[in-house]
TrEMBL record:
Its main location: membrane. The keyword Membrane applies. GO terms for biological process: cysteine export across plasma membrane. InterPro entries: LeuE-type. This is Threonine/homoserine/homoserine lactone efflux protein. It comes from Caminibacter pacificus. The chain crosses the membrane at residues 41-60, 72-89, 109-130, 137-160, 176-195. Signal peptide: none annotated. One of its GO terms (molecular function) is amino acid transmembrane transporter activity. GO terms for cellular component: plasma membrane.
Length: 196
């Protein structure tokens, strides 16, 4: 059971640290409120759970063998994040959150599929942290723990975004906040592309 504590530490750091999913949650929480973050939250849980399971049952060998496919995923993800950054930066402050449209479940799920940081996390979990003995049981335990941590992290970032909205209520501060979130996404793209 020694594998469990290092795994939980890795999961907590990977899931709670600033990254595209958390920045999106904060931005949606700020602009639309917590309820509108739920589709994104569910998509992250579903997407990462499926990814971790698929990697665990054997796709890791294919991914490690065909690095070019991973590179294509990295560039697709980067393009999609730049698109999201553009949408966030150019979104008009809308005080009527019932009319506005944040990221959908489908859009967020698509992002999970092409997110190279999630693939790296899943590969790291499966190849470094999970024991060879009782591997399948450890994999399912890991999926459950990651799901719990994802719900906590996305919720925390969304509530933080909503709290900022209460402080910064003007159109000008909303534009500044949105632009700042867009810049964070662009920085995360640059890190994906150039820091490895």
């Amino acid at each position: 059971m020694f594998w469990f504590i290092p795994l939980v530490i890795f999961l907590a750091v990977a899931i709670f640290s600033p990254g595209p999913n958390n920045v999106i949650a904060m931005s949606v929480g700020f602009n639309y409120g917590f309820k509108r973050v739920i589709p994104h939250l569910l998509a992250v849980v579903v997407g990462f759970s499926i990814m971790l399971f698929v990697v665990g049952i054997g796709i890791k060998e294919l991914i490690l063998k065909y690095q070019s496919a991973f590179e294509v995923m990295k560039y697709l993800c980067s393009f999609y994040l730049l698109y999201l950054a553009y949408k966030i930066a150019t979104s008009k402050p809308n005080l009527n959150t019932n009319e506005a449209k944040p990221i959908t479940f489908k859009e967020s799920l698509l992002f999970q599929v092409i997110n190279p940081k999630s693939w790296i996390a899943a590969l790291s979990i499966v190849t470094i942290y999970l024991p060879k003995d009782n591997f399948l049981a450890a994999l399912f335990i890991t999926i459950i723990i990651s799901d719990i941590l994802i719900v906590l992290a996305i919720s925390t970032w969304a509530v933080l975004g909503k709290s900022f909205n209460k402080i910064f209520k003007s159109e000008k501060t909303t534009k500044i906040f949105n632009f700042s979130m867009a810049i964070l996404l662009v920085v995360s793209v640059l890190m994906i592309l150039f820091v490895e």
